[in-house]
Amino acid sequence: AFADQKEGDGTLLDNCLVYALSDISYAKIHSLDNIPMFTAGSAGGKVKTGYHIQGNGEPGTRLGYTIMKVMGLDINSWGTLSNTTSKEFGEILV
To answer: Is 30 left (phi over 0), alpha (psi -120 to 50) or beta?
Structure first.
């Protein structure tokens, strides 16, 4: 497990950021509302952990956009059409 692997002053999990999601929330109708997604790790201390954040109708691309900004990408927005965002999840940023 990532948490068991020592790396520097912490663990591999401390120094990485894993992003996972399902591309649909309700498989029977391929719903795009309330898509479950999560992160694990703190990207070397750049991301706060232990939060549950409701998307409240925001595009699902918002978490991916936040992660790209954490990783240092210089982008103004991400996504297409109604899934475009330029808003980070500030709650998880250090």
So the answer is: left
- Pick the closest to residue 60 from 94, 91, 87, 40 (CA basis): 87
Q: What are phi and psi of 81, to 5 degrees?
A: 50, -125
> How many whole angstroms separate alpha carbon 82 and alpha carbon 94?
28
Residue 24 has a pLDDT of: 79
Tens digits of residue pLDDT in 18-30? 999 887 778 888 8
